[in-house]
Design brief:
The protein is α+β, with helices and mostly antiparallel strands. It is built from 18 helices and 25 strands. A five-stranded antiparallel sheet has the order 2-1-5-4-3, sandwiched between helices. It has a five-stranded antiparallel sheet with strand order 7-6-10-9-8. It has a five-stranded antiparallel sheet with strand order 11-20-19-16-17, with helices on one face. Residues 1-12, 24-60, 211-215 and 453-457 have low confidence and may be disordered.
Length: 721
């Protein structure tokens, strides 16, 4: 190995010179170094006694390598015995010292330091020796004094304690189960040639774990290093271990019902323990790696719970020593709770996503076609936001389209999202208008933020947004109200596209001085129209104005062909518009308006006179004969219309509107008037005359209800055909 002695200058010393000048204080010279180098080259990794000063000096050793702009070694100072076998000759590319799987990441870091001049420090890295073994180091990348000098890579051979600390720190940085298991496997690789982490299936999926009977663990491979082409039938990440292998590993690490580390020293013993050739092919990584140490990941408790098994494989001629097994057990014991935290986080994440996806619309019914896409910003539940969309048919034949964006992320946002969504659905089904529903949601958000009765955990939903649109399939129009939400985009059948002109409004829970009445807007939506409701994550880009983002959405949706599958079209729109690096959830709801055919609806406007019920019965009877309705259904509808029109004449003023709709498997009858009283079904006495009509309506229909309009109310009822 070439070595350049340290010759630091006074004021312009390079990073390489500064690091090299410190080596003399740590690198033993003379016979001790040579003996240690020879011992290490022979593969003797025995540890010195604690009182041996030379051993203490060699446990953590500093080295330096200087690189030019092409990442080629120009100077090297790796004289410490621990670096023996690292071929860092001048003129050799530095990346040849790296495992193949690490080359892209480390190269990117090296070039980043070259370009920015900002150091990258303390990266845990493996370096390859000439004999194929690997050395774990803490690597720092330092910019040189001048651009022409390239950069300096300093390495510290990891002492046992330092490696355990660094490994535990790295493993605890993620709450993703796969990443946590991968970090553990990478750390374990310092003790062998192949490391794998197999987790109980319940842990992998985030389910609850309890003490299990001996041999009942079902294992799935969560991590495997290094990354290479593995033999056929070998179990790789994401695959379940064969049942025999799971039982054998469980029995091995749960001997006498107590979790224990086991060591199988050679290939012959491995085959004898595993028994089946199929299990050998599934677990043994190759002929060279014949010995294995199996360390259980144990969650402390009474009784202790085994979360999985970590396996470290090495050559039979390099057996595990007691000190190394102690280190392995200590590392796995220190990090088992990180695996359990990731499991709990996975369960929380699954619950949040399940709630979020449950709110996505399933179907739009006969009068509107629905498609939706929800795309979380990050794969962990802390990043799951409160974006939600919902679509559901109302009992009176209309369809509700709702989109909202709750402030914040995580369980607090998800809980608020679910509460607002369910409340909106209940109020809309009860017949309230969109602006009235938003008034109730506004009050709910304020109550949730109350210090005494609200969410006291520090979460606030103030400023959340919501937009509610109701599609009338008979009148072919959309009525909507918005609380601080971005305007929906409407594409008409003639191809005209653009956002709807909705007056801006503060979000939900705004201060009392800022609160204004919620406006109600009505827009024509002929059959074939396409309405897009969305959240800001789809159109927001810091580099462009929000209006431009909305315009891009309108352009993308306007090219959706009437014959295109709407769900596929929604995915294409999201793929085209969603930012490459999402900072927020992306939500899109597309609704294609179909409406009722002209021959399936009829409307009559009658004066509120004594003969209105008779005239209504005559008109409805003629239409039902034309529709060839069954006699019993026709009689029920005629009685229903007579009762509703009679009530409208008796208790309201102005004209009476009668509408009949043939929908699916039923007939929907609506009677509107100018009154504002709410008909209620009451239990009357035997001599009471009032209220008998509603009892008749209740018995003849499958469901009935009331909704309010700008001019009065509409009583609707459905009769099965």
């Amino acid at each position: 190995m070439d070595s350049t002695p340290a010759t630091p200058s006074s004021s312009s010393a390079s990073a390489f010179d500064l690091v090299s000048s410190a080596l003399g204080r740590y690198i033993p010279r003379g016979g001790a170094a040579g003996d240690a180098r020879s011992a290490d080259a022979r593969g003797d990794r025995g540890t010195r006694a604690p009182g041996d000063p030379a051993g203490g000096r060699q446990e953590q050793i500093l080295g330096a390598v200087n690189l030019d702009g092409e990442l080629t070694v120009t100077r090297c100072n790796l004289d410490a015995p621990v670096f023996a076998g690292l071929d860092a000759r001048v003129g050799r590319p530095f990346v040849e010292l790296l495992p193949p799987g690490d080359v892209p990441t480390v190269t990117r870091r090296l070039r980043q330091v070259l370009e920015t001049g900002e150091a990258h420090v303390a990266r845990i890295q493996r370096l390859r020796r000439g004999d194929g073994s690997e050395l774990v180091v803490s690597m720092s990348i330092l910019p040189a004094a001048g651009p022409e000098e390239g950069l300096t890579v300093s390495v510290i051979a990891m002492a046992r304690r330092l490696h355990l600390y660094a490994a535990e720190t790295a493993i605890g940085t993620s709450l993703d189960i796969g990443e946590t298991a991968q970090s553990l496997a990478e750390s374990l690789l310092a003790w062998g040639e192949v490391a794998a982490v197999d987790l109980d299936f319940a842990v992998w999926t985030g389910e609850g774990v309890t003490g299990q009977a001996k041999g009942r663990i079902r294992l799935r491979r969560a991590a495997l290093v290094p990354d290479r082409a593995w033999p056929e039938d070998y179990v790789t990440p994401g695959e379940d271990l064969p049942g025999d292998a799971s039982r054998l590993l469980a029995q091995a690490v749960l001997r006498d019902d107590a979790p224990q580390t086991i060591v199988i020293p050679d290939r012959e013993a491995v085959e004898r323990v595993l028994g089946s050739p199929r299990v050998v092919r599934a677990l043994v990584p190759g002929d060279r790696s014949a010995g294995v140490a199996c360390i259980p990941l144990v969650l402390d408790g009474t009784p202790p719970v085994v979360l999985g098994v970590a396996e470290v494989w090495r050559r039979a001629d390099h057996p595990f020593r007691d000190g190394e097994l102690f280190d392995l057990q200590e590392l796995v014991a220190r990090t088992a709770h990180h695996v359990d935290l990731a499991r709990q986080h996975q369960r929380e994440h699954t619950q949040v996503l399940a709630l979020q996806r449950r709110l996505l619309p399933r179907t739009g019914g006969d009068t509107v076609e629905i498609a939706s896409v929800y795309q979380p910003a990050t794969p962990d539940s802390a990043g799951v936001g409160g974006d939600w969309v919902n679509s559901f048919p109302l009992p009176d034949g209309r369809t509700a389209l709702v989109v909202g964006d709750v402030v914040g992320h995580g369980l607090g946002a998800a809980a608020t999202m679910g509460q607002l969504s369910m409340e909106a659905r209940a109020l809309l089904s009860a017949g309230l208008a969109p602006d009235e529903v938003l008034e109730h949601l506004d009050e709910t958000v304020s109550l949730l933020d109350d210090a005494e009765s609200g969410l006291t955990a520090g979460y606030s939903a103030l400023g959340s947004t919501c937009c509610i649109a109701l599609y009338d399939p008979v009148g072919h129009h959309v009525t909507l109200s918005s609380a601080g939400h971005l305007p929906p985009v409407l594409i008409r059948p003639d191809g005209r596209a653009g956002p709807l002109a909705v007056r801006p409004h503060p979000g939900l829970g705004a201060e009392f001085a800022l609160r204004e009445p919620f406006d109600v807007h009505t827009f024509e939506a002929p059959p074939g129209s396409l309405l897009a409701l969305y959240t800001d994550g789809l159109v927001e880009d810091p580099a462009v104005p929000i209006d431009e983002g909305i315009g891009r959405l309108a352009d993308a949706v306007s090219v959706v062909h009437p014959w295109d599958t709407l769900q596929q079209a929604a995915r294409h729109v999201v793929a085209a518009l969603a930012p490459a690096h999402q900072r927020d959830d992306v939500t899109l709801l597309l609704a294609r308006m179909i409406g009722y055919r002209k021959g399936d609806t009829a409307t009559w406007r009658l004066p509120a006179r004594y003969d209105a019920p008779a005239r209504a019965r005559a008109q409805v009877s003629a239409l039902l004969r034309q529709w060839r309705t069954r006699d019993d259904t026709r009689e029920a509808v005629l009685v229903l219309v007579s009762e509703l029109v009679t009530n409208a004449v008796c208790f309201a003023t102005g004209p009476v509107t009668v509408r009949l709709i043939r929908a699916g498997h039923g007939l929907l009858c609506e009677v509107g008037d100018t009154g504002n009283g709410r008909p209620r079904l009451r239990r009357g006495g035997p001599l009471d005359d009032a209220g008998r009509g509603l009892h008749v309506v209740h018995r003849l229909t499958t469901r009935w209800g009331v909704r309010w309009t700008d001019t009065g109310k509409v009583v609707w009822a459905e009769v099965a055909r």
